[in-house]
Amino acid sequence: MKRRDFLKITAGGAAGLAASGAFPPHLGASDAPRPDLVVAHGASPEKTTRAAVESLGGMKRFVSRGDVVVVKPNIGWDRLPEHAACTNPAVVAALVALCVEAGAKTVKVFDRSVNDPRRCYVQSGIEAAAKAAGAEVSYVNERKFKEVAIKGGESIKSWPLYTELLEADKVINVPIAKHHSLSKLTLAFKNWMGVMGSSRGMIHQSINESLADLGLVIKPALTVLDAVRILTAHGPQGGNLSDVKKLDTVIASADQVAVDAYGATLFGLRGSDLGYVVSASRRGLGVMDLAKLRIQKLEA
To answer: Where are the beta strands (DSSP E) in the chain?
Structure first.
């Protein structure tokens, strides 16, 4: 893999480390501060995903040998990958493969789809790709939800959440970046609706606080935002290829607030334009101010 690295050091960072080969003689690249967030661009979604995770320290930073890992994509819609309604299957497969290579005992992939899951799993390409990479792919079992108290919840005090996610050793969130008619955008936090039981549409009445509430109990080890193709209008379902923009980009961080704040910029917005990002930041769930992050941009 050929890669060109650009390290942006902002407030709180170590000024002077600008690009590969620009380190002082006593400080090699291996000694550089680890980035808080990586923005990788490239023609191959698999290589781009791998490059992003590698730049964060590699999957072994997030997954230990013997772990049961949940890789949680968006498989909500009966759409093809070209429609940018579900997570890109190659991004999902790359993450599954990386978990297996890191020694994960089991990698599980699932989502509580909106459309018929049998069609969503096939049409999205995720079922086949994830299985080929070594994942256990399953439909959500409605009997496997458990009522969970949300301490400090402002809108949701408790909610049934999927036990397969709650019992996993590690969780990796892998949403797709797209427009949403109610929340403006659906990114990392919005992807947690796929592990909610009951009548989850009820949270739309106070969606911003509700999504931030979920972040109080669901804490992913890693968040990888698929922006290979983004849906710019008529989300979350889409269906018109004219609404799709190809960016060939993958964004990764251990901070899901930071991922959503950066994801907003892909649509000409800021994190502060998204109510759930503001709410999550206010509650200390992550960093919304991109100026406070070490952001690494690279070509894969």
So the answer is: 4-8, 37-41, 68-73, 106-109, 136-137, 145-149, 158-162, 170-174, 176-180, 184-186, 222-231, 244-253, 295-299
- C-beta of residue 88 within 8 angstroms of C-beta of residue 176: yes
Residue spans per domain, the chain: 43-288
Question: Which residue's entry shows tokens 């000024």?
Answer: 15
What are the counts of helices (DSSP H) followed by strands (DSSP E) for the chain? Answer: 8, 13
| Domain 43-288 coded CATH 3.40.50.11440 | yes
User: Beta partners for 6?
Assistant: 19, 297
Pairing of strands 145-149, 158-162: antiparallel
Q: How far apart are CA 55 and CA 59, in angstroms?
A: 10
Helix, strand, coil distribution of the chain in percent, nearest 5? 35, 25, 40
pLDDT per residue, tens digit, the chain (300 aa), is 333 343 333 333 333 333 333 333 333 445 678 999 999 999 999 999 999 999 999 999 999 999 999 999 999 999 999 999 999 999 999 999 999 999 999 999 999 999 999 999 999 999 999 999 999 999 999 999 999 999 999 999 999 999 999 999 999 999 999 999 888 999 999 999 999 999 998 898 899 999 999 999 999 999 999 999 999 999 899 999 999 999 999 999 999 999 999 999 999 999 999 999 999 999 999 999 999 999 999 999
**C-alpha 281 chain-centroid distance:** 17
